[in-house]
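hiii so um. not sure if this is the right channel but i have a protein structure encoded as C-alpha coordinates and i wanna go backwards to a sequence. like what aa goes where. can anyone help
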Protein backbone atom coordinates (compact mmCIF):
# COMPACT_ATOMS: atom_id res chain seq x y z
CA UNK A 1 0.00 0.00 0.00
CA UNK A 2 1.20 3.51 -0.81
CA UNK A 3 0.48 4.79 2.70
CA UNK A 4 2.98 2.37 4.32
CA UNK A 5 6.65 3.15 4.88
CA UNK A 6 9.11 0.77 6.52
CA UNK A 7 12.38 2.10 7.93
CA UNK A 8 14.84 -0.79 7.74
CA UNK A 9 18.05 -2.01 6.12
CA UNK A 10 19.35 -5.19 4.49
CA UNK A 11 20.83 -6.48 7.75
CA UNK A 12 17.75 -5.74 9.84
CA UNK A 13 15.37 -8.70 10.10
CA UNK A 14 11.62 -8.04 10.15
CA UNK A 15 9.09 -10.79 10.78
CA UNK A 16 6.33 -11.22 8.18
CA UNK A 17 3.62 -11.30 10.86
CA UNK A 18 4.49 -7.75 11.90
CA UNK A 19 4.46 -6.57 8.28
CA UNK A 20 1.05 -8.20 7.83
CA UNK A 21 -0.18 -6.33 10.90
CA UNK A 22 1.06 -3.08 9.36
CA UNK A 23 -0.88 -3.85 6.18
CA UNK A 24 -4.03 -4.45 8.20
CA UNK A 25 -3.49 -1.23 10.07
CA UNK A 26 -3.11 0.75 6.85
CA UNK A 27 -6.54 -0.40 5.68
CA UNK A 28 -8.43 1.03 8.68
CA UNK A 29 -10.76 4.01 8.11
CA UNK A 30 -9.08 7.37 8.68
CA UNK A 31 -5.51 6.07 8.35
CA UNK A 32 -3.30 8.56 6.50
CA UNK A 33 0.10 6.91 6.94
CA UNK A 34 1.63 3.90 8.67
CA UNK A 35 5.34 3.61 9.50
CA UNK A 36 7.24 0.52 10.62
CA UNK A 37 10.46 1.35 12.43
CA UNK A 38 13.54 -0.94 12.54
CA UNK A 39 12.44 -2.45 15.87
CA UNK A 40 9.09 -3.50 14.39
CA UNK A 41 7.66 -6.75 15.75
CA UNK A 42 4.26 -8.34 16.17
CA UNK A 43 1.99 -7.83 19.16
CA UNK A 44 -1.74 -7.35 19.74
CA UNK A 45 -1.07 -4.45 17.39
CA UNK A 46 2.33 -3.97 15.71
CA UNK A 47 5.05 -2.70 18.07
CA UNK A 48 7.66 -0.31 16.76
CA UNK A 49 4.94 1.24 14.63
CA UNK A 50 3.34 4.62 13.99
CA UNK A 51 -0.13 5.32 12.61
CA UNK A 52 -1.24 8.77 11.50
CA UNK A 53 -5.01 9.30 11.37
CA UNK A 54 -7.57 11.93 10.41
CA UNK A 55 -11.01 12.28 12.02
CA UNK A 56 -10.48 9.03 13.99
CA UNK A 57 -8.37 7.64 16.79
CA UNK A 58 -7.83 3.99 17.75
CA UNK A 59 -7.20 3.39 21.48
CA UNK A 60 -6.48 -0.31 20.85
CA UNK A 61 -3.41 0.62 18.77
CA UNK A 62 -1.87 2.18 21.88
CA UNK A 63 -2.93 -0.68 24.11
CA UNK A 64 -3.31 -0.82 27.85
CA UNK A 65 0.10 0.48 28.92
CA UNK A 66 -0.63 4.10 28.03
CA UNK A 67 2.37 6.34 28.67
CA UNK A 68 4.86 3.48 28.89
CA UNK A 69 8.32 4.88 28.34
CA UNK A 70 11.84 5.35 29.67
CA UNK A 71 13.23 7.94 32.03
CA UNK A 72 17.00 8.48 32.15
CA UNK A 73 18.30 9.90 35.42
CA UNK A 74 21.62 11.09 36.71
CA UNK A 75 21.75 9.60 40.21
CA UNK A 76 24.13 12.06 41.82
CA UNK A 77 26.40 9.09 42.64
CA UNK A 78 29.94 9.00 41.30
CA UNK A 79 30.59 5.86 39.29
CA UNK A 80 33.59 4.97 41.47
CA UNK A 81 31.19 4.62 44.44
CA UNK A 82 29.13 1.97 42.70
CA UNK A 83 29.52 -1.32 44.61
CA UNK A 84 28.21 -4.11 42.39
CA UNK A 85 28.19 -7.04 44.81
CA UNK A 86 26.74 -5.00 47.66
CA UNK A 87 23.93 -3.66 45.48
CA UNK A 88 23.16 -7.11 44.03
CA UNK A 89 22.90 -8.57 47.54
CA UNK A 90 20.59 -5.81 48.74
CA UNK A 91 18.31 -5.92 45.70
CA UNK A 92 18.06 -9.70 46.01
CA UNK A 93 16.40 -9.14 49.38
CA UNK A 94 13.28 -7.72 47.74
CA UNK A 95 11.17 -9.68 45.32
CA UNK A 96 9.39 -6.72 43.75
CA UNK A 97 9.49 -2.95 44.14
CA UNK A 98 6.05 -3.11 45.70
CA UNK A 99 7.89 -4.49 48.76
CA UNK A 100 9.31 -0.98 49.27
CA UNK A 101 6.54 1.38 50.48
CA UNK A 102 5.74 4.18 48.06
CA UNK A 103 5.03 7.73 49.17
CA UNK A 104 3.03 9.84 46.76
CA UNK A 105 4.71 13.27 46.98
CA UNK A 106 2.04 14.97 44.89
CA UNK A 107 -0.80 16.92 46.47
CA UNK A 108 -3.53 16.31 43.94
CA UNK A 109 -5.36 12.97 43.95
CA UNK A 110 -3.62 10.32 41.90
CA UNK A 111 -4.74 6.76 41.18
CA UNK A 112 -2.48 4.33 43.01
CA UNK A 113 -2.35 1.27 40.74
CA UNK A 114 0.94 0.00 42.21
CA UNK A 115 2.52 3.43 42.30
CA UNK A 116 6.32 3.27 42.20
CA UNK A 117 6.58 -0.16 40.57
CA UNK A 118 8.10 -1.31 37.30
CA UNK A 119 5.77 -4.09 36.18
CA UNK A 120 6.59 -7.30 34.33
CA UNK A 121 7.51 -8.19 30.77
CA UNK A 122 10.25 -6.04 29.30
CA UNK A 123 10.12 -3.39 32.03
CA UNK A 124 13.24 -2.78 34.12
CA UNK A 125 15.36 -0.40 36.14
CA UNK A 126 18.97 -0.43 34.99
CA UNK A 127 22.05 1.29 36.36
CA UNK A 128 24.36 2.38 33.56
CA UNK A 129 27.62 4.19 32.94
CA UNK A 130 28.77 6.24 29.97
CA UNK A 131 30.65 4.00 27.55
CA UNK A 132 31.61 6.59 24.94
CA UNK A 133 30.75 10.18 24.08
CA UNK A 134 30.56 10.96 20.36
CA UNK A 135 29.29 14.55 20.58
CA UNK A 136 30.77 16.46 23.50
CA UNK A 137 28.69 19.58 22.92
CA UNK A 138 25.41 17.64 22.83
CA UNK A 139 26.42 15.65 25.91
CA UNK A 140 27.16 18.87 27.79
CA UNK A 141 23.79 20.35 26.78
CA UNK A 142 22.13 17.21 28.10
CA UNK A 143 24.19 17.38 31.33
CA UNK A 144 25.50 13.89 30.64
CA UNK A 145 28.44 13.32 32.99
CA UNK A 146 31.17 10.79 32.18
CA UNK A 147 31.76 10.17 35.91
CA UNK A 148 28.15 9.87 37.10
CA UNK A 149 26.15 6.69 37.61
CA UNK A 150 22.96 6.75 35.53
CA UNK A 151 19.63 5.02 36.03
CA UNK A 152 17.29 4.07 33.17
CA UNK A 153 13.72 3.24 34.24
CA UNK A 154 11.37 1.52 31.79
CA UNK A 155 7.81 1.37 33.08
CA UNK A 156 4.29 2.52 32.27
CA UNK A 157 0.88 3.25 33.74
CA UNK A 158 0.40 -0.21 35.22
CA UNK A 159 -3.28 -1.08 35.74
CA UNK A 160 -4.35 2.52 35.26
CA UNK A 161 -3.84 2.57 31.49
CA UNK A 162 -5.46 -0.84 31.10
CA UNK A 163 -8.56 0.36 32.95
CA UNK A 164 -8.86 3.21 30.44
CA UNK A 165 -8.46 0.90 27.43
CA UNK A 166 -11.15 -1.40 28.83
CA UNK A 167 -13.63 1.50 28.71
CA UNK A 168 -12.81 2.88 25.28
CA UNK A 169 -11.44 0.14 23.03
CA UNK A 170 -13.55 -0.07 19.87
CA UNK A 171 -12.45 -1.92 16.71
CA UNK A 172 -14.11 0.83 14.66
CA UNK A 173 -12.23 3.60 16.45
CA UNK A 174 -13.49 6.81 18.04
CA UNK A 175 -14.64 9.68 15.84
CA UNK A 176 -13.25 13.10 16.73
CA UNK A 177 -16.75 14.56 17.09
CA UNK A 178 -17.83 11.97 19.66
CA UNK A 179 -18.03 12.34 23.44
CA UNK A 180 -15.97 9.17 23.83
CA UNK A 181 -13.14 10.71 21.81
CA UNK A 182 -12.83 13.66 24.19
CA UNK A 183 -13.24 11.52 27.31
CA UNK A 184 -10.63 9.02 26.15
CA UNK A 185 -8.03 11.67 25.30
CA UNK A 186 -8.52 13.37 28.68
CA UNK A 187 -8.01 10.08 30.55
CA UNK A 188 -5.20 9.05 28.17
CA UNK A 189 -3.34 12.29 28.92
CA UNK A 190 -3.70 11.72 32.65
CA UNK A 191 -2.27 8.19 32.30
CA UNK A 192 0.70 9.53 30.30
CA UNK A 193 1.32 12.06 33.07
CA UNK A 194 0.95 9.41 35.77
CA UNK A 195 3.37 7.03 34.03
CA UNK A 196 6.12 9.68 33.92
CA UNK A 197 5.61 10.41 37.61
CA UNK A 198 5.70 6.69 38.34
CA UNK A 199 9.17 6.46 36.77
CA UNK A 200 10.32 9.32 39.00
CA UNK A 201 9.06 7.51 42.10
CA UNK A 202 10.72 4.24 41.01
CA UNK A 203 14.07 6.03 40.72
CA UNK A 204 13.60 7.66 44.14
CA UNK A 205 12.56 4.37 45.81
CA UNK A 206 15.48 2.39 44.41
CA UNK A 207 18.13 4.88 45.48
CA UNK A 208 16.58 5.32 48.92
CA UNK A 209 16.48 1.57 49.43
CA UNK A 210 20.14 1.26 48.41
CA UNK A 211 21.04 3.76 51.11
CA UNK A 212 21.49 7.00 49.19
CA UNK A 213 19.78 10.33 49.58
CA UNK A 214 18.16 10.62 46.16
CA UNK A 215 19.63 13.48 44.17
CA UNK A 216 18.24 12.39 40.83
CA UNK A 217 18.18 14.71 37.88
CA UNK A 218 15.97 13.62 35.01
CA UNK A 219 17.95 13.96 31.80
CA UNK A 220 15.09 12.87 29.54
CA UNK A 221 11.78 11.04 29.52
CA UNK A 222 10.77 9.28 26.31
CA UNK A 223 7.21 7.93 26.19
CA UNK A 224 6.49 5.03 23.83
CA UNK A 225 2.74 4.35 23.84
CA UNK A 226 0.52 7.37 23.28
CA UNK A 227 -1.45 9.51 20.86
CA UNK A 228 -0.13 12.94 19.88
CA UNK A 229 -2.47 15.48 18.26
CA UNK A 230 -0.51 17.31 15.56
CA UNK A 231 -2.49 19.88 13.61
CA UNK A 232 -5.40 18.06 11.99
CA UNK A 233 -3.94 14.58 12.46
CA UNK A 234 -3.32 12.20 15.35
CA UNK A 235 -0.01 10.34 15.62
CA UNK A 236 -0.42 6.96 17.31
CA UNK A 237 2.90 5.65 18.62
CA UNK A 238 3.12 2.04 19.77
CA UNK A 239 6.69 1.28 20.79
CA UNK A 240 7.92 4.49 19.18
CA UNK A 241 9.12 7.86 20.49
CA UNK A 242 8.66 11.41 19.27
CA UNK A 243 11.47 12.77 17.13
CA UNK A 244 10.56 16.36 18.05
CA UNK A 245 11.15 16.59 21.80
CA UNK A 246 14.94 16.60 21.94
CA UNK A 247 17.44 13.77 22.48
CA UNK A 248 16.14 10.21 22.73
CA UNK A 249 17.36 7.13 24.62
CA UNK A 250 17.25 3.86 22.62
CA UNK A 251 18.29 0.79 24.65
CA UNK A 252 19.05 -2.67 23.37
CA UNK A 253 18.71 -5.74 25.58
CA UNK A 254 20.15 -6.09 29.09
CA UNK A 255 23.29 -7.45 27.41
CA UNK A 256 23.94 -4.62 24.96
CA UNK A 257 24.67 -0.92 24.89
CA UNK A 258 22.10 1.84 25.10
CA UNK A 259 22.27 4.66 22.55
CA UNK A 260 21.53 8.33 23.13
CA UNK A 261 20.73 10.06 19.87
CA UNK A 262 19.78 13.48 18.66
CA UNK A 263 17.50 14.14 15.75
CA UNK A 264 18.51 14.69 12.16
CA UNK A 265 16.56 16.62 9.55
CA UNK A 266 14.61 13.83 7.88
CA UNK A 267 12.12 12.88 10.59
CA UNK A 268 9.05 13.69 8.48
CA UNK A 269 9.85 10.46 6.60
CA UNK A 270 9.17 8.46 9.78
CA UNK A 271 6.08 10.43 10.85
CA UNK A 272 8.29 12.38 13.26
CA UNK A 273 9.07 9.21 15.21
CA UNK A 274 12.03 7.04 16.19
CA UNK A 275 12.60 3.52 17.51
CA UNK A 276 12.13 2.86 21.21
CA UNK A 277 14.59 -0.03 21.50
CA UNK A 278 15.92 -3.11 19.77
CA UNK A 279 12.58 -4.90 19.33
CA UNK A 280 11.84 -8.54 20.04
CA UNK A 281 13.17 -11.28 17.78
CA UNK A 282 11.62 -14.31 19.49
CA UNK A 283 8.18 -14.90 20.96
CA UNK A 284 8.31 -15.29 24.74
CA UNK A 285 7.03 -18.86 24.53
CA UNK A 286 10.05 -19.93 22.45
CA UNK A 287 12.88 -18.42 24.48
CA UNK A 288 13.54 -21.01 27.16
CA UNK A 289 13.54 -23.99 24.80
CA UNK A 290 16.03 -22.27 22.51
CA UNK A 291 18.63 -21.28 25.09
CA UNK A 292 18.05 -23.43 28.19
CA UNK A 293 21.22 -25.46 27.50
CA UNK A 294 23.30 -22.29 27.27
CA UNK A 295 22.68 -21.02 30.80
CA UNK A 296 22.40 -22.20 34.37
CA UNK A 297 20.70 -20.35 37.24
CA UNK A 298 23.78 -18.16 37.79
CA UNK A 299 24.98 -17.49 34.25
CA UNK A 300 21.49 -16.32 33.13
CA UNK A 301 21.97 -13.51 35.65
CA UNK A 302 25.15 -12.21 34.03
CA UNK A 303 25.81 -10.70 30.61
CA UNK A 304 28.71 -10.62 28.19
CA UNK A 305 29.27 -6.99 29.25
CA UNK A 306 29.92 -8.29 32.80
CA UNK A 307 26.76 -6.64 34.09
CA UNK A 308 24.49 -8.40 36.56
CA UNK A 309 20.76 -9.02 36.61
CA UNK A 310 18.55 -9.23 39.70
CA UNK A 311 15.27 -11.01 38.98
CA UNK A 312 13.45 -13.68 40.99
CA UNK A 313 11.39 -14.95 38.07
CA UNK A 314 13.46 -17.51 36.13
CA UNK A 315 10.93 -17.74 33.30
CA UNK A 316 11.12 -13.98 32.84
CA UNK A 317 14.91 -14.11 32.77
CA UNK A 318 14.75 -16.46 29.78
CA UNK A 319 11.94 -14.50 28.09
CA UNK A 320 14.01 -11.31 28.33
CA UNK A 321 17.41 -12.83 27.51
CA UNK A 322 19.59 -10.79 25.13
CA UNK A 323 19.15 -13.47 22.43
CA UNK A 324 15.39 -12.73 22.36
CA UNK A 325 16.05 -9.25 20.98
CA UNK A 326 17.32 -7.84 17.73
CA UNK A 327 20.81 -6.38 17.44
CA UNK A 328 20.56 -2.78 18.64
CA UNK A 329 23.52 -1.79 16.44
CA UNK A 330 21.56 -2.89 13.35
CA UNK A 331 18.52 -0.90 14.47
CA UNK A 332 20.66 2.20 14.97
CA UNK A 333 22.37 1.67 11.59
CA UNK A 334 18.95 1.57 9.92
CA UNK A 335 17.99 4.90 11.49
CA UNK A 336 21.35 6.35 10.40
CA UNK A 337 20.88 5.12 6.83
CA UNK A 338 17.56 6.97 6.64
CA UNK A 339 19.25 10.10 8.05
CA UNK A 340 16.93 10.22 11.04
CA UNK A 341 19.49 10.48 13.86
CA UNK A 342 22.98 11.39 15.01
CA UNK A 343 24.54 9.36 17.83
CA UNK A 344 25.49 11.42 20.91
CA UNK A 345 26.75 8.71 23.27
CA UNK A 346 26.52 5.08 24.30
CA UNK A 347 25.84 3.74 27.79
CA UNK A 348 26.85 0.39 29.27
CA UNK A 349 24.62 -1.52 31.70
CA UNK A 350 26.15 -2.52 35.03
CA UNK A 351 23.12 -3.75 37.02
CA UNK A 352 19.60 -4.54 35.83
CA UNK A 353 16.67 -4.98 38.23
CA UNK A 354 13.42 -6.63 37.12
CA UNK A 355 10.43 -7.12 39.37
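sure thing!! here u go:
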Amino acid sequence: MSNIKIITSEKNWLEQTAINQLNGLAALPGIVKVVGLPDLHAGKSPVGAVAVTERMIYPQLIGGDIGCGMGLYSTGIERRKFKLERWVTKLNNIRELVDIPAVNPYEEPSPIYDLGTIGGGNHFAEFQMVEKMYDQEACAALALDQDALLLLVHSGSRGYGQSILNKYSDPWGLRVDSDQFHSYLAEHNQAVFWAARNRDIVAHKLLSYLGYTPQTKKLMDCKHNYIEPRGDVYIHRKGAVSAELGPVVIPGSRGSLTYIVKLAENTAASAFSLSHGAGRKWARSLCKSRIREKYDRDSIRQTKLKSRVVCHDTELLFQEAPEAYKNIDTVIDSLLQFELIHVIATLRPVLTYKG
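oh and The mean pLDDT is 94.
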